[in-house]
From TrEMBL:
Domain of life: Eukaryota
Organism encoding this protein: Dunaliella tertiolecta
Gene3D superfamilies: 3.10.310.50
Protein name: TPM domain-containing protein
Segments passing through the bilayer: none
């Protein structure tokens, strides 16, 4: 069984038989120094069940880098910060424009329709976050990727990956993605919105690639640098003038 922590997100643990427990894996934050030295990104590993009725998802922070020890922030539960209507994108930090949110929603909805995988995006600045309230709101499960964009602790990209997704996508992809678009130097120069947009597009491309040993071995380049293999990306680009 695998469990996860996201910056700001605590997961409660309940053990059960492997066939019934939900699995998740967190790919820890990538730092520029670790990426440049080809150090491996660590993966937290204990048993966990997403969407636990008692705690579910809550906020915490952990850089998960060798030799780094830091305090764990208090958990947050702010359902008042959740949208009234169901949406796969929640931006409580105001990083995205309305058109950017719409583009991401369209890409996520098409990806889910075509592949069955659920990508959910939460943009936040800890402690301003709905925290563990998102577990029930989104119904997080084995087929879900929870992408938390939070620059509060330096790097911005954090991923909680469900068990079925973990079987589909090699773990090194998430570390490479965080290293490319999540490092502090990138988002401070390009903006938080660019980190989020490019990461979503790269995930879309990865999950649409055919099965095989080369699946998700590369992280898609920035918009305009390399077209997404996901057909929705071209349509969305035209729709929003990109």
């Amino acid at each position: 069984m695998l469990s996860a922590r996201l910056p700001g997100l605590h997961l409660s643990s309940k053990t059960s038989r492997p066939v019934t427990i939900k699995q998740s894996v967190v790919i820890c934050k990538a730092s520029r120094d670790v990426a440049s030295s080809n150090a491996k990104h660590q993966v937290m590993s204990t048993s966990a069940k997403l969407a636990s009725a008692t705690c579910g998802l809550a906020l915490a922070a952990s850089l998960c880098l060798p030799g780094v020890s830091m305090a764990r922030p208090e958990g947050v539960n702010r359902p008042d910060l959740l949208p009234k209507e169901q949406t796969p994108v929640i931006d409580v930090a105001g990083f995205l424009t309305p058109s950017e949110e719409a583009r991401i929603r369209a890409e996520i909805e098409s990806l889910e329709l075509d592949t069955g995988f659920k990508l959910r995006v939460l943009a936040q600045n800890y402690p301003e976050t709905p925290g563990k309230a998102i577990a029930d709101y989104w119904g997080v499960g084995d087929d879900t990727i929870v992408f938390v964009a939070d620059p509060s602790f330096g790097d911005i990209l954090n991923f909680n990956v469900g068990g079925l997704v973990d079987l589909e996508v090699p773990r090194r992809f998430w570390g490479a993605l965080a290293g490319k678009y999540g490092n502090k130097f990138y988002w401070q120069e390009k903006g938080e919105n660019e980190s989020i947009l490019n990461a979503v597009s790269a995930i879309d491309t990865c999950l649409r690639e055919p099965q095989g040993r080369f699946k998700c071995t590369q992280v898609q380049g920035e918009f305009g640098e390399k077209d997404s293999k996901g057909p929705i990306s071209d349509r969305i680009g035209k729709l929003f003038g990109n």
